[in-house]
Structure prediction request, 216 residues.
Amino acid sequence: MRSTALLLLAMMYIVPAEAQTPLETTLVVQQGGREIGREEFTLRPGRGRGAPGTTLIAAARYPARNPTTQLAATLERTAEFALAKFQLDVETDGAVTVILAAGSGARLIVRTVAAGSESGRELPGGPDVVLLDDRVYSLYATVADLATPAGRRLTAIFPRTGTRATLTARKEAGSPGGTVKVALTGDVAGTLLADAQGRLLRLDLPAQGIVVVRAE
Prediction:
């Protein structure tokens, strides 16, 4: 518990250098057939200090022009897809909230820092836990990495809202070009498509009317 808390403090307010460089992929976020925002992200191999794994850097804005809400996310995972680092900065009407998460075995420590306030909570962790957000959709590619042909039961935690959801991710066979198609059932239902490098191509969440697609 102490070591995880120290890690969270070390992460606080650190803006990765990658977040200041152009991001590779743009997603268009639609709801009810209307564009409501855009997201850019980069997924690359490796983590900080040369550690093995992957690093996802994402930036989203709602709406795409003259945004009132902007989000910046960093997700580092080990080579075994375990959580190493998560940071989400949310700016709404000039106010910034920083959300940090780190795992230690079966524990997940989440800390939220805003102007004049700070809070933390401990949640169950483990290899079947994924961190998602309903405005940073590139994070859903982590579900594709954990999906199995038989269907894998996952717990999704949305650190910004505190929501917990249970879903099953079933990888479908026969996707062309090395892409991965995953059917989602449970509290989060829909389909997602990721490319051979693990980057999100498309996400459909019918209950929310959300469709996320790569920009042309």
Observations:
- Confidence is low (pLDDT under 50) at residues 1-20.
- The helical segments are 2-11, 141-146.
- Residues 2-214 form one domain.
